[in-house]
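Show me a record, fold above all:
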Amino acid sequence: MTRFPQAVPPASRRQFLAWSSGVAAATALAAAGCSAPDDGAGSAKAENAAVGSSSGAKALGKIGLDYPFTQLPLYATLVKLSTAAAKKHHVSLLTTSDASNADTQATNLGTWVSRQVPAIVSIPMVFEATEAIAKRALDAGLIWVTYGGTLEHQSADIQFSFLKGGTLLGEAAAKWADQHLGGKGKVAFLTDSTIQLGRERTKGMIDAFTKHAPGVDVVAEEQAIDPDTGLSKSRAILAKHPDLNIILGVTDAAAYGGFKALQQTGRAKDDAKTFVGGQDGAAPSLLAVKQGTFYRASAALAPQDIASAVVDVPLAVAAGKKNPSVQVPIALVQHGDTARIDALLAQNS
């Protein structure tokens, strides 16, 4: 599995939104036929029932990846890398097209359970509602892996050091504010309160920043996870606070929208009194960091680590391994971290 270059101890990997070439790539993948649940109910049921050893290990032929936020460029990268990772194990990858709609997600997941897709990896949009679907899956003898959080009814989960990622970003921005603004100025947070991942990232980001930069005024906290919403919300904030110094995002996608909003309202790309930062390690954000713009930091994940977990965790559950859940490592990248940025960008190519 690909890791950060010398940045994270290898053992920590066993304890997730990066950018690819753009939203159009995600849309193209869905249009190309990656989106609909597979019709092979009979073969899926047979694969689910296959027994590989006397220990009760199952041989998986299919894994379903339910990533509802298809508007985020991570979707394209994740599908590509997860498909390749699955192929190495002679497993086919199915995907849904939820279009960020909780009702559509519930319908698609219900279809997979009815069709006996042997293993499902899902980011629940509404955790309470997804519990019942996950329970149905487990009761049917299927494997359920929660991506980006934890459910009561699950086989395992995939998490991304949510709180730590937010904390790393908040601390870096607070340190910069102390050094370059004398501990004064204005900050806006682009947040998410809808899922566990978003809530923990938001908490880490806000708590760390306000603790270490108490003299910086918090002028806004707005819900935004994608670039379009980040752009529109940031423009509205700037209309009230044109002297805004700092925008921190729960995702790089949202923060990049803030980055563009600042430029559209006249901010120079290398303005010495401006700091934008996000979380995920999205390609446009990483490029902006590398180029020395005022997009100064990203709490970054390696896309290959996430994609490998999408495949490895269900296989580990099927093999009967203990503690199959993983915590994908995260690391802060800033200007000057050229080798690490290049390694991450290569995974998005």
